[in-house]
Amino acid sequence: MTQKILAIIPARGGSKRIPKKNIKLLAGKPLLAYSIEHAKSSKHINRVLVSTDDSEIAEMAKKYGAEAPFLRPTEISGDDATDLQCFEHALEWLKSEENYVPDLVVQLRPTSPLREVADVDMAIEMILSHPGGDSARTVIEPQASPYKMYRISEDGFLEPLMGDLDKINVGDQKLPKVFRHIGTADVIRPSTILEKKHMSGSKILAVPVKKAYSGINELEDWDYYEFLISRKGR
Questions:
Q1: Which of 16, 124, 133, 186 could form a disulfide with 107 if both were Cys (CB 3.0 to 4.6 A apart)?
Q2: 157 and 74 both lie in a single domain
Q3: Residue (of 128, 114, 112) closest to 45 by Cα position
Q4: E strand or H helix that includes residue 138
């Protein structure tokens, strides 16, 4: 039986740092369109939904081939709204209105227009091959290891962030390998969201990727991303 794999793209209308960010043109295309195209290009995703509180974003989503069957309630669309609230609402609506329950949910943040679809598929395949996992998250090795970082104590002295002074001055190759979460793709079991009330759960599968960009969060990111997209010929 074919797995029901749903991509949800959260795209609320209230962006303050970049007004109308999700439908602002980036290299000639709305930012939201990139994530829709990524989802539709996946080998595994077979349904694409945009969760938004904004009718203009909903229409743009439909134009590029995604579904926007509802408008997200205002009370879970403000600055303090969480991903969990957004995904709970979408899954509960689909169950109530369509009796549709996906096997997996893929979160694709619209602020990652340069993600590789192969990384999305790799994350899906990772959780499909590990039934005990609550979720799979794309991660990357950080440029700076936390073992090389400090914090400032109350009396003004530097303290190793990881509490290990012996590792501060050793070569990076001798340090434990660490990873940081990036927003390329998160793949989550619906039970993790609806029953465990969490976006990752405690059994998180790692999906290391070779390269990732930090995402578009500030206005100054916009020109840089347009340059990167034009360089890649997208």
A1: 186
A2: no
A3: 128
A4: strand 135-140
69, 156: one domain:
no
Same domain, 24 and 49: yes
Report how many domains make up the chain: 2
**Bridge partners (DSSP) listed for residue 107:** 8, 186
What are the φ/ψ torsions at residue 29 (nearest 5 degrees)?
-140, 140
Q: Could you tell me the two tokens for 118?
A: 């192969």
Q: Is residue 46 domain-shared with residue 149, that is, in the same domain? A: no
Q: Is 232 exposed, middle or buried (0-12, 13-18, 19+ CB in 10 A)?
A: exposed
Beta bridge partners of 209: none
- Provide the residue count of the chain: 234
Successive 10-residue mean pLDDT values, the chain, 234 residues: 94 84 94 98 98 97 98 93 97 98 98 95 98 97 92 96 89 91 95 98 96 84 90 66
User: The domain containing residue 159 runs over which residues?
Assistant: 142-178
The residues that bridge with 30 in the sheet, in sequence order, are: 25
